[in-house]
Amino acid sequence: MAKRDYYEVLGVSRDASEEEIKKAYRRLARKYHPDVNKSEGAEERFKEINEAYAVLGDQERRAKYDQFGHAAFEGGADQGGFGGFGGFPGFEDLGDLFSDLFFGGFGGRPSQRPRRGADIHYDLTISFEEAAFGLETTVEVPRTVVCDRCHGNQAEPGTPIINCPDCQGTGQMRYVQNTPLGQFATTRTCTRCRGEGKIFETPCRECQGAGTVRRTSRLKVKIPAGIDSGQYVRLSGQGEAGYRGGPPGDLLIVVHVRPHELFTREGNNVLCEIPISFVQAALGDEVDVPTLEGSVKLRVPEGTQTGRTFRLRGKGIQDVRGYGRGDQLVTLRVVTPTKLTARQKELLREFAKASGEEVQTGNKGFFERMKDALR
User: Fold this and answer.
1) Fewest beta carbons less than 10 Å away: which of 41, 161, 294, 314?
2) What's the whole-model pTM score?
3) 269-277 vs 161-163, strand pairing mode
4) Quick check: 252 and 121 in contact, CB under 8 A?
5) Which residues contact residue 267 at a Cβ distance below 8 angstroms, ignoring those fewer than 6 apart?
6) Closest C-alpha among 210, 320, 344, 334 to residue 265
């Protein structure tokens, strides 16, 4: 029987990327693995999928296949163990390949490959001004680091580390159970070495055999000008220690900005409100306006209405990416006096009369004023 095209077997196009081929293979292998799929033809389908991936998952073999087709591998000399469970390019063994697919539910061992450490989130609260202009500070972060004494291998220096005699260094134990439907095989983590494949008689006295220790690190961090609440600074390699020699994670400094009593922020602009009197609004004046860099003079034109906003160019916050600086928006609020002297009231009535306004003195009651309004 003629072999099917390997691309057709995996259900991918001929220009598929390595990642697309790998994803297709893992999806089909999960579906047709004999320990999971007992339907007729599943085992043969699984072998066909393995064979296709053993070629398309290897760049050199894939290039030969694209040029010569199946003829490039006639005789099987180049293909390795397609029919069985060996010969998976890019994987150490079947347990490593399928531990994240379905064996985890049956107690499969964790991957033996190096794994990156976890990231750490650290909350840092700063003032409004510090966020605007940036700062350099020191933080103390508790984190897991590789043990200096054993360098992560868990054993006391100078003592032997050997292959686990129970699992023969594989980190997993295979169990076969006879059922009316046939044999059912499962793979479980070795309880003696806990999946490590190695054991030691004398644990490191510094880390007690863990390979890592807990330390509080003092780290300098530079907070850029213009940072806002919720944004963060990443310190690469300052997170938790990696696993099996993997790289450490990162430290994420998450910034929280305290509210300011005068200013609020809108993007890169700074907003504030300045109270002025009725006389200043009517006749005009020059008032002091606070900014992030000290007070500046603002000319209030005569006849200014409450709520009018003035823009102070370049008095805002530096863009965190360096794209210029925002402005400061100053909103004027006319404050109505609550306590007036008799002379001040008399002057206001004269002003109202000169302006053609009729001002109620407050001597009439509410219903009397209503009657007057309806006449």
Assistant:
1) 294
2) 0.59
3) unpaired
4) yes
5) 326
6) 320
